Amino acid sequence: MNQFPERLNFSSHGFSAISRLVEIIDYWSMKVREMKGERNISRRDLEYYRFDSSFGILSRSAKQHGYSGRIGTTRYLFSRLNDFLLSLIAFFSPIPGLRAMCHRKRGVKIAKNTLIGLNVVIDSVFPEYVVIEEGVSLAGNNVILAHSTPLEYHRNDWDSFVAPTIIKKNAVVFTGAIILPGVTVGEGAAIAPGAVVTEDVPAHTFVGGVPAKIIRKLSHSKDDM
Question: Is the pLDDT reported for residue 14 higher than 60?
Fold first, then answer.
């Protein structure tokens, strides 16, 4: 018996290879979302990273996502493979709409009228913790993170956690900028090329540097209106 819905039947004609691939990704992404269900996306602590066997690392990561036991770990592995495929397509796709679509299917909350540039990496483990509001532009070669798991050796130096990373309406993130976990980029803000954003960015400000600091207010600042 065919496991796929009728619209995915490989015996049907008139669909290109790309259309079939998109249909399959859509189907399996839906299944993965069903397995994940709704999840609280407030900040929470994570285990520090420690070296282990591949299965041990996978099991620990599965537990952080609410999966347990061998069956749960296998289901988590499937969801990670699906996420990897979608990330790969989004990273290299020359079509902006396809890039956004793939990240949405990973769980990233992306509003309409957004631009996701080429070679953008959005958290590979907790994509559902990233929120990109309407009118946002990610120029390309950006990294948007939502979690940090330092080595256990450094537990007294840095927190291990996952937290929502939010880019608010009409913000611009220029080429090569990196946004670290738990940061909120305010409405209409701009991030300079190559900046590393470690703290919240006020609305309508231009920040840059490593770590990013406020350079100036932008013309749409409420103070100037």
Answer: no
Lowest mean pLDDT among 31-40, 79-88, 115-124: 31-40
Structure token pair of residue 133: 């509001």
Instruction: Locate the DSSP E strands across the chain.
Output: 44-45, 109-110, 115-116, 121-122, 130-132, 137-138, 143-144, 147-148, 161-162, 165-167, 172-173, 178-179, 184-185, 190-191, 196-197, 205-208, 213-217
**In this model, does residue 33 exceed pLDDT 90?**
no
CA dist., res. 32 & res. 37, Å (int): 9
Bond before 211 cis per omega within 30 degrees: yes
- Amino acid code (one letter) for 222: K
Q: Following CA atoms 146, 119, 101, 165 in sequence, which dihedral angle do they give, to the nearest 10 degrees?
A: 20
